[in-house]
Structure formats: structure tokens, C-alpha cells
């Protein structure tokens, strides 16, 4: 009895998992940004010290930088030494939309001179400016690098990653807050990270389900929401409520090929019209088929007819593996087609050429992107 009960529970759980995976959705907060809630870029010129002979050689702006730093401490010097223990750097950071005075953030430090490495260096106090020329943060602290540089007098050297770029973790203190205005009048604009008309309309409809008459898709990239009367003065609470609403985004038909890594990715909505392609010793026949989707147990779905494709591959003997060894034999989607071609020994360049030919023939109903 226990075995049957466990088996039944496992089948129910499997059905729920399959159903949830087929009806994929995402939270609105993961698909959008709020207009007025954005980061801002900061930058500044700084000096890194303590580099043990790996810093800049005699460079004018490096010397002026350390002389100015010493003068601010009440130490007057006519010229800097030649120990190469210092380096001139540019300091950059992104200040978040809700960063408050006294909060900390990471900064990136990069050499602008001829320093060999910033390993073990300390960034001196550096003001960071915004695009308006005002100081919004001050950075200081030890520099951590993800690279390594080593060598000897004979000229042999080894370098891993970039030793002249580093990070000062939590090294910047926010001195001035940047006001974020997310409420315009009595409405909020949600900006889609991947603009799409169908997704914008779905999002507006989903919000209207919970807050009727408040949302409208103004264009493919923006959904405007009027703040309900119950949430006046509680904008943050409303955004938290709206952000948790789930929407099934409409993914465009797209095939992305990265020739450098040999990666081919195709979205679920890609379709291929009837076409025959011959490349070297292989011929591919693609024909549309019709499938039926049955609702899963304990669901309220309906039986639907789905379009699809079948692919038949014919090859000459002597170059590729036999077709019987492919699993599955042939391909019904672009993903399976690419997988089958890969098993047959075709390189990414050859697969790219085949997909380009299908696209040029007008048979690939998708956007083809080659990186």
C-alpha cells in the first residue's frame, strides 16, 4: 500500500513539474526596470601606493599627483622619487538609484601609466565625480586584482589576466545621494528590458487583473501604471506587489550562433518551412508536420494542434556516422537539427553556412544572429 501511495505521489509531482515547466513565466520585476530608478556612473583620478617597484616610471602626471597629495598633508616637495612604488589610476564606479549617504560600494581601479601591476597597492583618498562635476563619493582602500605578473632580469615573464586592473571592495563611501523620482504625477512607467509588443500587452493585462483599469502598454517598451487610491503614499508597497505578478513573456523567434565557442541557440518559436539543403555529402529535407498537445492529468487545459517540422537526412557513405546512430534520427526543430548535424561531424562553421542558406531561401522563420 505504501509503495502504491508513493508511486502515485511521484506521478502527481511529475505531472505538476511537467505542467509548470511547459507554462513558463517570470515575475514583472525580473522583466522590467522602473523609470527614474537607475544607476549613475562616477569617475575620478587617483594614486595607488605601495607597489614595490611595479608602479609607473617617471611620468609627469603621476609625479604631480603624488606631489599634490603630499602638499594636502602639509608636506612640500620639489620632485617625487624614482622608486616606482606609485601609479596613476582612473577610478570608476556605479552608484545605485537608492544609495544613501554613508553606504558603501565597490570601485574599479585601472592604471593609466606604465605600471607593471597594482598588486598589493593602496588607493589614496579619491573623490568620485558625476557627469555634472559634483562629488558623490570618496574612495580609498587596498586594491585587489584578479591577475598576476612575474618575470626576471633575463626577460622571461608570465602574465595571467590583467594585473593593472583591480577592485577596491566596499572602498567608496557615498557622500551625496542622487534623488530617484519614480512617480510622475500619479503614474509609474515600467520599462521592458527586452521590448516586445506582445509582452507589454500581456504585462498590462496581468496588472489589470489585480488592479483593474490601472495599466496600459503605451508602446513595445513601456507599460504605464496609475497608482491606485489605496496605495497613495505607498509607492514602494505597490511596486513590490506589482513586481511579484507573473507574466509569460513572448520570446521572439531567434537563432544565435557563436562561431568562437561553437554554440548554437534557438528559441522555441523558431519555425522552418519545407526546404531541402545539400552540403558536401549530406542532404537535409525539412517538411512541416502537425502535432497534438494533450492536457496533463489534473489540469484544465484543452487539446491543441501544434505545427512542427520533420527532418530527413541523407548522406553518402565514408564521411559521417550512420544515420541510425543518431538519437533522435533527424530533427523537428532547429535545436534538434543543429544537434543532429553536430553528431554527424559538421563544424559550427558548416552548420552556420547551412542555417544561413536556409535563411536566405526564406525558409527560416526567425532572426539569425551570428557573433
Protein model, in words:
- There is one protein chain.
- The chain is of the alpha+beta class.
- It folds into three domains: 40-174, no CATH class; 183-247; 254-370, no CATH class.
- It is built from six helices and 23 strands.
- Strands 3-4-5-11-7-6 form a six-stranded antiparallel beta barrel. Strands 2-12-14-13 form a four-stranded antiparallel sheet.
- Strand 9 (148-151) and strand 10 form a beta hairpin.
- The model is unreliable at 1-22 and 317-331 (pLDDT under 50).
Uncertain runs:
1-22, 317-331
- The radius of gyration over CA amounts to 30 Å
Question: What is the beta-strand fraction?
Answer: 35-45%
Spatially, the strands of the biggest sheet line up as 3-4-5-11-7-6
User: What general outline do the C-alpha atoms trace?
Assistant: flat
Total count of strands? 23
Question: Largest beta sheet, briefly?
Answer: 6 strands, antiparallel, barrel
Number of continuous helical runs: 6
Fraction of residues in helices? 10-25%
Helix/strand/pairing class, anyone?
A: alpha+beta
Order of helices and strands: HEEEHEEEEEEEEEHEEHEEEEEEEHHEE
Mean pLDDT score, rounded?
Answer: 77
Give the distance, in angstroms, between the N- and C-terminal Cα atoms.
Answer: 57 Å
> How many structural domains can be distinguished in the coordinates?
3
Amino acid at each position: 500500500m505504501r509503495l502504491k501511495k508513493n508511486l502515485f505521489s511521484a506521478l502527481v509531482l511529475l505531472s505538476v513539474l511537467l505542467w509548470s515547466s511547459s507554462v513558463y513565466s517570470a515575475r514583472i520585476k525580473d522583466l522590467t526596470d522602473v523609470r527614474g530608478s537607475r544607476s549613475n556612473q562616477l569617475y575620478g583620478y587617483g594614486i595607488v601606493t605601495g607597489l614595490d617597484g611595479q608602479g609607473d616610471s617617471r611620468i609627469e602626471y603621476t609625479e604631480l599627483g603624488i606631489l599634490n597629495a603630499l602638499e594636502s598633508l602639509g608636506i612640500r616637495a620639489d620632485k617625487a622619487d624614482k622608486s616606482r612604488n606609485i601609479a596613476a589610476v582612473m577610478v570608476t564606479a556605479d552608484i545605485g538609484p537608492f544609495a544613501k549617504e554613508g553606504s558603501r560600494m565597490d570601485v574599479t581601479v585601472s592604471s593609466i601609466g606604465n605600471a607593471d601591476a597594482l598588486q598589493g597597492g593602496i588607493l589614496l583618498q579619491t573623490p568620485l565625480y558625476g557627469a555634472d562635476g559634483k562629488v558623490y563619493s570618496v574612495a580609498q582602500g587596498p586594491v585587489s586584482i584578479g591577475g598576476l605578473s612575474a618575470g626576471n632580469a633575463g626577460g622571461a615573464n608570465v602574465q595571467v589576466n590583467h594585473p593593472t586592473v583591480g577592485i577596491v571592495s566596499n572602498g567608496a563611501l557615498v557622500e551625496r545621494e542622487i534623488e530617484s523620482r519614480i512617480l510622475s504625477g500619479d503614474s509609474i512607467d515600467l520599462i521592458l528590458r527586452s521590448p516586445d509588443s506582445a509582452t507589454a500587452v500581456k504585462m498590462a493585462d496581468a496588472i489589470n487583473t489585480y488592479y483593474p483599469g490601472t495599466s496600459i502598454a503605451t508602446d513595445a517598451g513601456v507599460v504605464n501604471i496609475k497608482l491606485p487610491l489605496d496605495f497613495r503614499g505607498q509607492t514602494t508597497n505597490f511596486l513590490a506587489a506589482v513586481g511579484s505578478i507573473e507574466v509569460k513573456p513572448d520570446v521572439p523567434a531567434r537563432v544565435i550562433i557563436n562561431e568562437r565557442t561553437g554554440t548554437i541557440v534557438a528559441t522555441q518559436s523558431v519555425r522552418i518551412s519545407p526546404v531541402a539543403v545539400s552540403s558536401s555529402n549530406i542532404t537535409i529535407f525539412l517538411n512541416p508536420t502537425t502535432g497534438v498537445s494533450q492536457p496533463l492529468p489534473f489540469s484544465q487545459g484543452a487539446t491543441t494542434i501544434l505545427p512542427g517540422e520533420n527532418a530527413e537526412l541523407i548522406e553518402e557513405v565514408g564521411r559521417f556516422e550512420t544515420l541510425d546512430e543518431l538519437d533522435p534520427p533527424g530533427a523537428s526543430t532547429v535545436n534538434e537539427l543543429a544537434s543532429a548535424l553536430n553528431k554527424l561531424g559538421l563544424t559550427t562553421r558548416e552548420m552556420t553556412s547551412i542555417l544561413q542558406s536556409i535563411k536566405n531561401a526564406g525558409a527560416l522563420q526567425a532572426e539569425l544572429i551570428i557573433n
